[in-house]
Design brief:
The protein is an alpha+beta fold and 447 residues long. It has 9 helices and 11 strands. Strands 1-2-5-6-3-4 form a 6-stranded antiparallel β-sheet, with helices on one face. The chain has a 5-stranded antiparallel β-sheet with strand order 7-10-11-8-9, with no helix packed on it.
């Protein structure tokens, strides 16, 4: 994949009048050349608007555009200097076209037509592009921007989640779970009369990954899109209703059911408090896991199971496969994981992730878990019960009863498993008899 070029459209190239001319050259290259005895160096990129475009969008990072152009050599458009006419589709800011051409296109709207005049340093340079373009040549492009397609972020690739970058982010750092993040967001939808209805306009400072908590009220479907953002990045997000509030809508915000939403989101700032896992020593990993467990416990008590699940899962990610700890640290790691596995099993049950709950309990026992831990057997039994593995579930509930003979709930589960196992066996026997009774009947083979 080609690298992302750090190009930013110059504002003076936007919203121009027809036949207006502007200089789009970066400021640092518009210096005075001493050899010209005080005269300004020729402008590297000039743009002349020939036809106004439509809408408010300009191409930006991630967008794919469709254009058509005619190209000329020299400093004026003349049929004698024509050398190429072409339709072209490409992703902007990927180095697909010469730099001066890209600077010009980034200031254009859909359906706009402009002439872009380039000095050699912004076109094909001293080498040129033989045989069509001689060395050190000025080039002119007569460009029409036919379409702008912003990135489709949906897994289905059906344009149900779209991101239109408005301001490209700065730097290379990205927010990580738990860091403090400052976010500005505005949201709206179109009503039956196609009128814009705003439902949120706020700035919020909160721990990234916890936005769905009532105190912060940043939807998960917005947070999910922010992981690769940079500071100061601003974008318009469009989400079809099934990726937003779906059939239920949101009564609190006044959003009807099955409503498509649009947001303008700006990542104002973020601060990383903890190191990334690869930067931590063993003790720091263990301390981080304790903080995660406390967060998970808090959200479990608040009945925010998705958030609790996230924090308990993070514990397993950090120390679940760490093979570098020895002696006391290894003992602490196992204790942390034992608690993490049991908590994750309970939350998985609450979220009806029964296969995962069963697998987590298995891992608990594989990691030298307490063979007399009632919670581990009971939770695995519940998972197996919901997976309709009656025999295995009964075995776990019976194990609970060995340790706690008065556990009424385990007794009920065990009895129910026995009854369901008999019922299932009877149904299987009946089905087998029906299949066998039909064997050999019907139309035979004809020769």
């Amino acid at each position: 994949m080609s690298r992302l070029f750090d190009l930013v459209a110059t504002e003076n190239g936007k919203n121009m009048a027809v036949d207006e001319e502007v200089d789009l050259s970066p400021v640092k290259l518009r210096s005075v050349d001493k050899e010209l005895k005080g005269e300004s160096k020729p402008r590297g990129i000039r743009k002349i608007l020939k036809k106004e475009g439509n809408g408010d969008d300009y191409p930006n990072s991630g967008d794919k555009i469709k254009i058509k152009y005619k190209a000329y050599l020299g400093d004026e458009i003349h049929p004698e200097y024509f050398f190429e006419e072409k339709d072209l589709e490409y992703e902007v800011c990927r180095g697909t076209v010469v730099r001066g051409f890209e600077y010009g296109v980034l200031t254009m709207k859909k359906d706009e037509r402009s002439e872009i005049y380039l000095q050699p340093e912004y076109a094909y340079g001293k080498a040129g592009a033989p045989p069509q373009i001689p060395p050190d040549s000025q080039v002119i492009f007569d460009v029409t921007l036919l379409d702008i397609q912003c990135p489709d972020l949906s897994e289905e690739k059906d344009r149900s989640i779209l991101k239109k970058t408005i301001v490209k982010g700065k730097g290379w750092k990205e927010p990580s779970e738990g860091c403090m993040i400052k976010l500005k967001m505005k949201g709206w939808y179109a009503d039956k009369n196609d009128e814009r209805v705003e439902f949120v306009d706020k700035e919020v400072y909160y721990p990234f990954g916890e936005g769905s908590y009532d105190k912060y009220d940043v939807p998960k479907f917005i947070e999910d899109q922010l992981h690769n953002w940079k500071k100061k990045e601003t974008a318009r997000l469009f989400l079809k209703s099934r990726h937003a509030y779906g059939e239920t809508g949101n009564e609190k915000l006044g959003i009807p059911s099955n409503t498509d939403l649009t947001y303008i989101v700006e990542l104002l700032d973020f601060e990383k408090e903890d190191k990334d896992v690869w930067e931590m020593n063993n003790q720091e990993k263990l301390e981080s896991c304790e903080k995660l467990r406390e967060k998970g416990n808090f959200y479990f008590k608040e009945k925010k199971m998705e958030l609790a699940y996230k924090f308990y899962s993070r514990i397993v990610e950090i120390v679940g496969f760490d093979l570098c700890m020895k002696d006391d640290e290894e003992k602490q790691r196992k204790e942390v994981l034992h608690k993490g596995y049991l908590n994750l099993a309970q939350v998985s049950l609450n979220l009806e992730k029964y296969r995962e709950a069963k697998d987590v309990c298995d891992k608990y026992f594989m990691l030298d878990g307490d063979k007399n831990n009632v919670k581990a057997y009971f939770r695995r039994g519940q998972a197996l019960y919901n997976l309709q593995d009656w025999k295995s579930a009964k075995s776990d509930f019976d194990k609970v009863l060995e340790m706690e003979p008065t556990n009424k709930l385990a007794k009920r589960y065990s009895t129910d498993c026995q009854n369901k196992a008999k019922e299932t066996a009877g149904q299987e026997k009946e089905l087998a008899q029906k299949m066998m009774s039909g064997f050999g009947k019907g139309v035979g083979l004809k020769y």
